[in-house]
Structure formats: C-alpha cells, structure tokens
Amino acid sequence: MIYLDNNATTEIDPRVVDVMLDVLRSGPCNASSQHAVGRAARLRIDEAIDVIGSAIDSPLDQPGGPRLIFTSGGTESNNLALTGLAEPDAPIVLSRIEHPSVIAVAEHLAAQGREIRWLDVDSTGVAEIDSLADLIQTGDRPAGLVSLMSANNETGVIQPIEQAAQICRDLGVTFHVDATQSIGKLPISFRTLGASAVTMSAHKFHGPTGIGGLWLDGGVKLRPLLHGGEQQLESRPGTEPVPLICGMATALQLATSELPEIQPLLGSLRDRLEQGLRSAHPHLVVHGGWSEEDEAARAPRLPNTTCLSFLGADRQSMLMALDFAGVACSSGSACSSGSSPPSHVLLAMGLPAEQVQSALRFGVSKFSTEKKIDSAIERISNCYKRLTQKRAVEN
Ligand code: PLP
C-alpha cells in the first residue's frame, strides 16, 4: 500500500516506538503516587514537558507562564478549548472550514443557545480576515472566543493566524488556534504566535495516537471538561499516560529539529505528485487557488498536501478503486470519510458541485519516496482513466 493519507494520521517514527517501549517496560507509571516509582514517573513527565517546551519555543516551567494540558488528541483539545475558554454565554467566532471537532462542538453549544458567528472563506480557502473585527464586535455582545485553524486538513491552505492574533489582541478576545495540521510541516513558535491557546495532536507528526495537548498562554483560564482527581492542576484529571507523553515529546522534538530537511522534502514530493498527475490529466483541478499561469493567485499551502478534483469521476468510486489499487488517500477529513456528505470545506469555498463531488486529498510524509510517488501517479492515473471511460460508456 502506498500511504498518502498523512493528514489523517502518520506512521509512527521507529525512534518514538523505542522510547515508548523503554517507558512501557520500565514498570508501573502513576505520576501521582507518593513513592519512588511514582516520583520516577513524574520525572519522566517533567522531562517530556521540558522537551516539548523547547520544541514549540515556549518554556513551560515558569510559574505563571504558559502551560500544557495533555489530552487524548486534537479532538479533545478542541472540545476543551471551545467549551472551557470563554465565558459560558459569550459568542464564539469560528471559520466555516474548521475541523469537525470544532464545528460539532460549536453546533452542540448553539443548540444550547450559544451564539456562533461564522467567518467565511474565499474561493482559495483562506479565511476572510478583513471581516473578523466586525464579526467579533457585531450584535449586543462582543465575542469571547475566536477559534481558527492554522492550516486546513483537506486543502492544506494556511490561514492568516498572525493577523487574527493581532485583531484578537487589539479587541481583548481569547484566541484559540487548532495547529493540528501544521506542526511538523511548518516552523511554529508558540511564544510569538500571539494565541491564547493552541491545539496539537501527536499522531499527526509521527507520534502515537491517543495523545495531544492544549497549550495555554500564561494567565489563560480554562474550565475543565472532566472532573475527578487533581492531575494536571484539575484542568484534565485522570492518570497521565506516561509512555504516550514521552512518545509525544520525542516525536515533537524530532519533528521540529528535522523540519529544515523535511519541509523541502515534503514540498518536492507533493509537487512531483501534482505535476505527474496534471501532466497526464491537464484538466485536474488543484484546490487552494492553484494556477499554473498565475503563481500570485495561489494560496499558501502546507508543503505535504494536495486536494484535487478528478472531474468526471465520483470521489467515493475513486477512493475505492485506489484502495483496491494499493493507494491510500482520502475524500475529506478522516472523521467523515466513511460517510457520503460532500466536503464542508470545499462547499464553503463556493466550488462548483462537480469539483466538490470529485475531490480527493493526498498527503505525503517523510516516509514517502520518489519511487512510491511515481508508482502512485501511475495507479491513480489508471484508476481515473478506467472510471471516466466506464462513465462515458454508461452515458
Ligand atoms: N483538527 C484538525 C485540523 C485535524 O486535522 C484533526 C484530525 O484530522 C483534528 C483536529 C482531530 O485530531 P485527533 O485525530 O487527534 O482527534
């Protein structure tokens, strides 16, 4: 199988597995226990937090400074942020292209009477930042929280986070960034980002599934989702998963230290895939304002991601044919790929129905190779030809 679904999840780095096995084999690991075994587990967590703090350029050991809450991943971090950051009745602003783990929480809150204000995106998939200040100030009450993803999981389009942070700072609004897709693909400094809270998820950067974090700037208050023990200063009670935490720290350290080599590698593999497919099928549409003639019209994208419309083919049929041909990709975010609704992201971009119906997402990783990409191009191209010929015959 040629795995090109790295925005859904990535292959764990063997060096991360080694660290985790070491911790798993080291014995019991309850960091709250008041004995030497518990203290050893606590030490491992403290060391992991130091490693994470350096990797994200935000020391996490200063009293009153930024802190990190470990969660089960991006979904939990987003739930925690949306439900716990703003006053319970304050309006929330979010873009129409957020991940379902943000949108579904917002819809849940809306059903309970919470006001949600939606930030539109343009046809290239970039949030319309010029309307953010008005959206925050609209109505009887200013918004208490803005949530914006750093890069979209389906199109890879990078969002204007710095400008949003500035607007939120000027208007005194809490700003949450879902950085799940950019960590390990783009340089990121949490210290200079200007956000109040940032979501991350380890399995997106070659770490284990089941662990992520919500970074909080110094002084940012949070209401917990869970209630129980005193772990993580009661922000997220429950025995800390020490092997997962150590795995996440190692993965993050590798992802950030190796980024100068990995980022151009991802870009060249993704471009190879796009160019190979487009030279075989020039009418394929690359989303994100991509245009051969006009580079300036292109939206900035994650280096590893391409979202393409295979006009004349149905995305679910393509997905199945590719699976059979040994290529793993996706027809949207992994959470909704088992179902048929068309992508809310492409719909929000106002794309024609035919483009939405035929769109597939490919995401390369550091484990993709030119050989695998070339083989994928051939397989994808063959599937596409077969499906469009079949459709022509049927019509
Ligand atoms: N946010 C974004 C942008 C994502 O792409 C994803 C996963 O695809 C999530 C959040 C959810 O992360 P997790 O799978 O760790 O719950």
Automatic annotation (TrEMBL):
InterPro entries per record: Aminotrans_V_dom, Cysteine_dSase, PyrdxlP-dep_Trfase, PyrdxlP-dep_Trfase_major, PyrdxlP-dep_Trfase_small
Keyword field: Iron, Iron-sulfur, Metal-binding, Pyridoxal phosphate, Transferase
Gene3D superfamilies given in the database record: 1.10.260.50, Aspartate Aminotransferase, domain 1, Type I PLP-dependent aspartate aminotransferase-like (Major domain)
Protein name: Cysteine desulfurase family protein
Cofactor(s) needed by this chain: pyridoxal 5'-phosphate
Protein source organism: Novipirellula rosea
Domain Aminotransferase class V: 2-374
Family: Belongs to the class-V pyridoxal-phosphate-dependent aminotransferase family. NifS/IscS subfamily.
